[in-house]
Write a structure and sequence with these properties.
With about 325 residues, the protein is of the alpha/beta class. It folds into 2 domains: about 5-125 and about 280-300, Rossmann fold (3-Layer(aba) Sandwich); about 130-280 and about 315-330, Dihydrodipicolinate Reductase, domain 2 (2-Layer Sandwich). The chain contains 9 helices and 15 strands. The protein has helices spanning about 20-30, 40-50, 60-65, 80-90, 105-115, 130-140, 165-185, 280-295, 305-320, and strands at about 10-15, 30-35, 55, 70-75, 95, 120-125, 150-160, 190-195, 205-210, 215-225, 225-235, 240-245, 250-260, 265-275, 330. It has a 9-stranded mixed beta sheet. Strands 3-2-1-4-5-6 form a 6-stranded parallel beta sheet, with helices on both faces. The N and C termini lie far apart (about 45 Å).
Amino acid sequence: MNPIAQNIKIAVIGSGYWGINLVRNFNELGILELVCDQSASSLDKTREISSSVKTTSNYKDVLNDKNINGVVIATPAITHHKLALEFLQAGKDVLVEKPLSLNIDDGYSLVKYANEHNRILMVGHVLEYHPAIIKIQQIISKGDIGDLHYVYSNRLNFGRVRKEENILWSFAPHDIAIMLRIIGEMPISVSATGAEYLTPSVPDVTLTNLSFKNKIKGHIHVSWLHPFKEHRLVVIGSQKMITFDDVSKNLSLYDQHIQIKNNSLTPISGNVSDISYQNKEPLKIECEAFVEAIKTRKKPLTDGESGLKVIQVLATAQNSVTKHGVPMKIQEPEIV
Protein backbone atom coordinates (compact mmCIF):
# COMPACT_ATOMS: atom_id res chain seq x y z
CA MET A 1 0.00 0.00 0.00
CA ASN A 2 1.13 3.52 -0.77
CA PRO A 3 2.46 5.08 2.48
CA ILE A 4 0.25 8.16 2.10
CA ALA A 5 -2.85 5.98 2.02
CA GLN A 6 -2.65 3.81 5.14
CA ASN A 7 -6.01 3.00 6.76
CA ILE A 8 -7.94 4.72 3.98
CA LYS A 9 -10.50 2.97 1.81
CA ILE A 10 -12.08 4.62 -1.21
CA ALA A 11 -15.28 3.94 -3.14
CA VAL A 12 -15.85 5.26 -6.66
CA ILE A 13 -19.41 5.98 -7.79
CA GLY A 14 -19.54 5.85 -11.58
CA SER A 15 -16.91 3.95 -13.57
CA GLY A 16 -17.80 5.13 -17.06
CA TYR A 17 -15.90 7.35 -19.50
CA TRP A 18 -14.06 9.38 -16.84
CA GLY A 19 -14.76 7.37 -13.72
CA ILE A 20 -12.72 4.42 -14.96
CA ASN A 21 -9.62 6.65 -14.78
CA LEU A 22 -10.38 7.36 -11.13
CA VAL A 23 -10.81 3.62 -10.57
CA ARG A 24 -7.40 3.01 -12.10
CA ASN A 25 -5.64 5.66 -10.04
CA PHE A 26 -7.11 4.73 -6.67
CA ASN A 27 -6.42 1.07 -7.43
CA GLU A 28 -2.78 1.96 -8.12
CA LEU A 29 -2.69 3.73 -4.75
CA GLY A 30 -3.81 0.47 -3.17
CA ILE A 31 -6.91 1.88 -1.48
CA LEU A 32 -9.76 1.10 -3.87
CA GLU A 33 -12.35 -0.81 -1.85
CA LEU A 34 -15.61 -0.62 -3.79
CA VAL A 35 -16.87 0.55 -7.21
CA CYS A 36 -20.51 1.30 -7.94
CA ASP A 37 -22.10 1.60 -11.38
CA GLN A 38 -25.47 0.65 -12.81
CA SER A 39 -23.83 -0.51 -16.04
CA ALA A 40 -22.69 -4.14 -16.08
CA SER A 41 -20.17 -3.40 -18.85
CA SER A 42 -18.63 -0.60 -16.78
CA LEU A 43 -18.23 -2.94 -13.83
CA ASP A 44 -16.66 -5.51 -16.16
CA LYS A 45 -14.03 -2.90 -17.10
CA THR A 46 -13.46 -2.27 -13.41
CA ARG A 47 -12.76 -5.97 -12.84
CA GLU A 48 -10.22 -5.86 -15.69
CA ILE A 49 -8.32 -3.27 -13.66
CA SER A 50 -8.70 -5.15 -10.37
CA SER A 51 -10.15 -8.61 -9.94
CA SER A 52 -10.23 -8.19 -6.17
CA VAL A 53 -12.17 -4.93 -5.86
CA LYS A 54 -15.78 -5.21 -4.72
CA THR A 55 -18.49 -3.98 -7.09
CA THR A 56 -22.15 -3.08 -6.75
CA SER A 57 -24.94 -1.50 -8.78
CA ASN A 58 -26.56 0.09 -5.71
CA TYR A 59 -24.91 3.22 -4.28
CA LYS A 60 -26.61 2.62 -0.93
CA ASP A 61 -24.21 -0.28 -0.42
CA VAL A 62 -21.49 2.40 -0.27
CA LEU A 63 -23.57 4.59 2.05
CA ASN A 64 -23.92 1.71 4.50
CA ASP A 65 -20.31 0.51 4.34
CA LYS A 66 -18.65 1.82 7.50
CA ASN A 67 -15.20 0.84 6.22
CA ILE A 68 -15.28 3.46 3.45
CA ASN A 69 -13.43 6.68 4.37
CA GLY A 70 -13.86 8.61 1.15
CA VAL A 71 -16.26 8.55 -1.78
CA VAL A 72 -15.46 9.72 -5.30
CA ILE A 73 -18.47 10.75 -7.39
CA ALA A 74 -18.09 10.52 -11.18
CA THR A 75 -21.72 10.39 -12.22
CA PRO A 76 -23.70 12.78 -14.49
CA ALA A 77 -23.58 16.36 -13.20
CA ILE A 78 -27.31 16.44 -12.49
CA THR A 79 -26.75 13.84 -9.73
CA HIS A 80 -23.76 15.50 -8.05
CA HIS A 81 -25.59 17.50 -5.39
CA LYS A 82 -27.91 14.70 -4.28
CA LEU A 83 -25.18 12.06 -4.06
CA ALA A 84 -22.56 14.33 -2.49
CA LEU A 85 -24.99 15.47 0.22
CA GLU A 86 -26.05 11.91 1.02
CA PHE A 87 -22.47 10.74 1.41
CA LEU A 88 -21.49 13.77 3.49
CA GLN A 89 -24.48 13.11 5.74
CA ALA A 90 -23.32 9.49 6.05
CA GLY A 91 -20.05 10.77 7.53
CA LYS A 92 -17.88 10.24 4.44
CA ASP A 93 -15.38 12.59 2.83
CA VAL A 94 -16.28 13.38 -0.76
CA LEU A 95 -14.45 14.11 -4.00
CA VAL A 96 -17.04 15.09 -6.60
CA GLU A 97 -16.26 15.56 -10.26
CA LYS A 98 -16.80 18.99 -11.78
CA PRO A 99 -19.07 20.81 -11.62
CA LEU A 100 -19.81 20.65 -7.91
CA SER A 101 -23.50 21.12 -8.73
CA LEU A 102 -25.66 22.68 -11.43
CA ASN A 103 -26.72 25.73 -9.43
CA ILE A 104 -25.23 28.04 -6.81
CA ASP A 105 -27.58 27.26 -3.94
CA ASP A 106 -26.99 23.51 -4.19
CA GLY A 107 -23.25 24.08 -4.25
CA TYR A 108 -23.46 26.39 -1.26
CA SER A 109 -25.48 23.84 0.71
CA LEU A 110 -22.74 21.23 0.17
CA VAL A 111 -19.99 23.62 1.27
CA LYS A 112 -21.99 24.70 4.31
CA TYR A 113 -22.70 21.13 5.41
CA ALA A 114 -19.10 20.00 4.94
CA ASN A 115 -17.77 22.95 6.94
CA GLU A 116 -20.28 22.51 9.76
CA HIS A 117 -19.58 18.78 10.08
CA ASN A 118 -15.81 18.74 9.54
CA ARG A 119 -16.02 16.75 6.32
CA ILE A 120 -13.63 17.02 3.39
CA LEU A 121 -15.38 18.28 0.25
CA MET A 122 -13.18 18.36 -2.83
CA VAL A 123 -14.01 19.12 -6.47
CA GLY A 124 -12.32 17.41 -9.41
CA HIS A 125 -10.85 20.45 -11.14
CA VAL A 126 -8.05 18.22 -12.34
CA LEU A 127 -6.19 20.83 -14.39
CA GLU A 128 -5.38 22.78 -11.25
CA TYR A 129 -3.11 19.83 -10.42
CA HIS A 130 -1.51 19.78 -13.87
CA PRO A 131 2.25 20.30 -13.49
CA ALA A 132 2.22 22.67 -16.50
CA ILE A 133 -0.47 24.87 -14.91
CA ILE A 134 1.46 24.88 -11.63
CA LYS A 135 4.58 25.92 -13.55
CA ILE A 136 2.65 28.77 -15.21
CA GLN A 137 1.52 30.00 -11.79
CA GLN A 138 5.12 29.96 -10.57
CA ILE A 139 6.31 31.97 -13.57
CA ILE A 140 3.59 34.57 -13.05
CA SER A 141 4.19 34.75 -9.28
CA LYS A 142 7.90 35.46 -9.83
CA GLY A 143 6.98 38.41 -12.06
CA ASP A 144 8.74 36.95 -15.09
CA ILE A 145 6.03 38.07 -17.53
CA GLY A 146 5.54 41.51 -16.01
CA ASP A 147 2.03 42.74 -15.30
CA LEU A 148 -0.71 40.29 -16.20
CA HIS A 149 -2.87 41.65 -19.04
CA TYR A 150 -5.19 38.85 -20.09
CA VAL A 151 -5.67 35.10 -20.27
CA TYR A 152 -7.57 33.17 -22.90
CA SER A 153 -8.37 29.53 -23.40
CA ASN A 154 -9.84 27.38 -26.16
CA ARG A 155 -11.36 24.03 -25.18
CA LEU A 156 -12.69 22.63 -28.43
CA ASN A 157 -13.46 19.12 -29.61
CA PHE A 158 -15.84 17.04 -31.71
CA GLY A 159 -18.41 14.87 -29.98
CA ARG A 160 -19.03 13.90 -26.34
CA VAL A 161 -22.30 15.84 -26.70
CA ARG A 162 -24.52 15.89 -23.61
CA LYS A 163 -28.16 16.71 -23.02
CA GLU A 164 -28.21 17.08 -19.22
CA GLU A 165 -25.73 19.96 -19.30
CA ASN A 166 -24.67 22.41 -22.00
CA ILE A 167 -21.17 23.03 -23.33
CA LEU A 168 -20.60 25.85 -20.85
CA TRP A 169 -21.20 23.63 -17.81
CA SER A 170 -19.46 20.64 -19.40
CA PHE A 171 -16.21 22.15 -20.72
CA ALA A 172 -15.73 25.60 -19.18
CA PRO A 173 -15.32 24.64 -15.49
CA HIS A 174 -11.72 23.61 -16.21
CA ASP A 175 -10.82 26.97 -17.72
CA ILE A 176 -12.70 29.05 -15.18
CA ALA A 177 -10.94 27.20 -12.35
CA ILE A 178 -7.54 27.81 -13.95
CA MET A 179 -8.22 31.51 -14.52
CA LEU A 180 -9.47 32.09 -10.99
CA ARG A 181 -6.35 30.36 -9.66
CA ILE A 182 -3.94 32.22 -11.93
CA ILE A 183 -5.51 35.65 -11.43
CA GLY A 184 -6.23 35.03 -7.76
CA GLU A 185 -9.60 36.73 -7.53
CA MET A 186 -13.20 36.63 -8.70
CA PRO A 187 -14.19 38.62 -11.78
CA ILE A 188 -16.07 41.88 -11.42
CA SER A 189 -18.40 41.00 -14.26
CA VAL A 190 -19.08 38.21 -16.75
CA SER A 191 -20.60 38.28 -20.22
CA ALA A 192 -21.24 35.31 -22.48
CA THR A 193 -22.91 34.38 -25.74
CA GLY A 194 -23.79 30.98 -27.10
CA ALA A 195 -25.57 29.10 -29.85
CA GLU A 196 -27.50 25.83 -29.95
CA TYR A 197 -27.62 23.66 -33.05
CA LEU A 198 -28.31 20.12 -31.84
CA THR A 199 -30.68 20.28 -28.86
CA PRO A 200 -33.08 23.17 -28.13
CA SER A 201 -31.97 25.34 -25.19
CA VAL A 202 -28.64 23.47 -24.88
CA PRO A 203 -25.81 25.64 -26.29
CA ASP A 204 -23.16 23.75 -28.24
CA VAL A 205 -20.68 26.64 -28.33
CA THR A 206 -20.12 29.58 -25.96
CA LEU A 207 -17.78 32.55 -25.73
CA THR A 208 -17.30 33.92 -22.21
CA ASN A 209 -15.57 37.15 -21.19
CA LEU A 210 -14.40 37.75 -17.62
CA SER A 211 -13.49 41.22 -16.38
CA PHE A 212 -11.20 41.53 -13.34
CA LYS A 213 -9.62 44.40 -11.45
CA ASN A 214 -6.66 46.27 -12.98
CA LYS A 215 -8.04 45.79 -16.52
CA ILE A 216 -7.22 42.07 -16.48
CA LYS A 217 -9.41 40.08 -18.86
CA GLY A 218 -10.20 36.41 -19.37
CA HIS A 219 -11.68 34.88 -22.53
CA ILE A 220 -13.02 31.31 -22.79
CA HIS A 221 -14.14 29.60 -26.00
CA VAL A 222 -15.68 26.13 -25.63
CA SER A 223 -17.37 23.91 -28.21
CA TRP A 224 -18.12 20.25 -28.94
CA LEU A 225 -18.80 21.11 -32.58
CA HIS A 226 -15.23 21.56 -33.75
CA PRO A 227 -13.33 19.61 -36.43
CA PHE A 228 -10.33 18.85 -34.21
CA LYS A 229 -9.29 18.80 -30.57
CA GLU A 230 -7.75 22.00 -29.23
CA HIS A 231 -6.99 22.64 -25.57
CA ARG A 232 -4.88 25.78 -25.45
CA LEU A 233 -4.15 28.33 -22.72
CA VAL A 234 -2.47 31.66 -23.47
CA VAL A 235 -1.26 34.13 -20.84
CA ILE A 236 -0.29 37.65 -21.92
CA GLY A 237 1.93 39.83 -19.74
CA SER A 238 3.45 43.26 -20.19
CA GLN A 239 6.92 41.74 -20.79
CA LYS A 240 6.46 38.11 -21.83
CA MET A 241 3.79 35.63 -22.93
CA ILE A 242 3.08 31.97 -22.12
CA THR A 243 1.30 29.30 -24.14
CA PHE A 244 0.31 25.79 -23.10
CA ASP A 245 -1.02 23.26 -25.60
CA ASP A 246 -2.61 20.39 -23.67
CA VAL A 247 -2.78 18.29 -26.84
CA SER A 248 0.90 18.48 -27.82
CA LYS A 249 1.87 19.08 -24.14
CA ASN A 250 4.14 21.97 -25.17
CA LEU A 251 4.66 24.77 -22.65
CA SER A 252 6.42 27.80 -24.13
CA LEU A 253 7.61 31.21 -22.94
CA TYR A 254 7.67 34.00 -25.54
CA ASP A 255 10.12 36.80 -24.83
CA GLN A 256 8.10 39.45 -26.62
CA HIS A 257 6.15 42.56 -25.77
CA ILE A 258 5.13 45.95 -27.09
CA GLN A 259 7.52 48.78 -26.21
CA ILE A 260 5.88 52.14 -25.63
CA LYS A 261 8.35 54.98 -26.14
CA ASN A 262 7.88 58.58 -27.29
CA ASN A 263 4.24 57.89 -28.17
CA SER A 264 5.26 55.06 -30.52
CA LEU A 265 4.41 51.36 -30.22
CA THR A 266 7.20 48.98 -31.19
CA PRO A 267 6.86 45.16 -31.16
CA ILE A 268 9.88 43.59 -29.44
CA SER A 269 10.41 39.92 -30.29
CA GLY A 270 12.93 37.71 -28.53
CA ASN A 271 13.41 33.98 -28.15
CA VAL A 272 10.77 31.34 -27.64
CA SER A 273 11.78 28.94 -24.88
CA ASP A 274 10.37 25.50 -24.18
CA ILE A 275 9.62 25.10 -20.47
CA SER A 276 9.99 21.73 -18.81
CA TYR A 277 7.60 20.52 -16.13
CA GLN A 278 7.06 17.41 -14.04
CA ASN A 279 5.92 14.43 -16.08
CA LYS A 280 3.17 13.13 -13.82
CA GLU A 281 -0.48 12.45 -14.52
CA PRO A 282 -2.59 15.33 -13.12
CA LEU A 283 -5.34 12.93 -12.06
CA LYS A 284 -2.88 10.92 -9.99
CA ILE A 285 -1.83 14.12 -8.22
CA GLU A 286 -5.49 14.98 -7.63
CA CYS A 287 -6.22 11.55 -6.17
CA GLU A 288 -3.20 11.80 -3.88
CA ALA A 289 -4.41 15.23 -2.75
CA PHE A 290 -7.78 13.75 -1.76
CA VAL A 291 -6.08 11.05 0.27
CA GLU A 292 -3.83 13.61 1.95
CA ALA A 293 -6.84 15.76 2.83
CA ILE A 294 -8.60 12.77 4.41
CA LYS A 295 -5.50 11.98 6.48
CA THR A 296 -4.62 15.50 7.61
CA ARG A 297 -8.16 16.97 7.73
CA LYS A 298 -6.76 19.99 5.88
CA LYS A 299 -8.70 21.44 2.97
CA PRO A 300 -7.31 20.49 -0.45
CA LEU A 301 -6.40 22.97 -3.18
CA THR A 302 -9.70 22.42 -4.99
CA ASP A 303 -11.95 22.48 -1.95
CA GLY A 304 -15.68 23.09 -1.89
CA GLU A 305 -15.26 26.86 -1.68
CA SER A 306 -13.18 26.97 -4.87
CA GLY A 307 -15.72 24.71 -6.57
CA LEU A 308 -18.52 27.06 -5.51
CA LYS A 309 -16.68 30.04 -6.99
CA VAL A 310 -16.50 28.24 -10.33
CA ILE A 311 -20.25 27.58 -10.18
CA GLN A 312 -20.89 31.25 -9.42
CA VAL A 313 -19.02 32.24 -12.58
CA LEU A 314 -20.77 29.53 -14.61
CA ALA A 315 -24.23 30.56 -13.39
CA THR A 316 -23.49 34.21 -14.12
CA ALA A 317 -22.24 33.31 -17.61
CA GLN A 318 -25.36 31.18 -18.18
CA ASN A 319 -27.54 34.11 -17.18
CA SER A 320 -25.66 36.35 -19.59
CA VAL A 321 -26.14 33.83 -22.41
CA THR A 322 -29.90 33.94 -21.90
CA LYS A 323 -29.73 37.75 -22.05
CA HIS A 324 -27.70 37.69 -25.30
CA GLY A 325 -24.36 38.69 -23.80
CA VAL A 326 -25.31 41.41 -21.33
CA PRO A 327 -22.49 41.83 -18.74
CA MET A 328 -23.58 40.54 -15.33
CA LYS A 329 -22.24 40.89 -11.80
CA ILE A 330 -21.30 37.64 -10.07
CA GLN A 331 -24.31 35.82 -8.62
CA GLU A 332 -24.28 35.06 -4.91
CA PRO A 333 -26.04 32.22 -3.05
CA GLU A 334 -29.55 33.05 -1.87
CA ILE A 335 -29.23 30.81 1.18
CA VAL A 336 -28.42 32.67 4.40
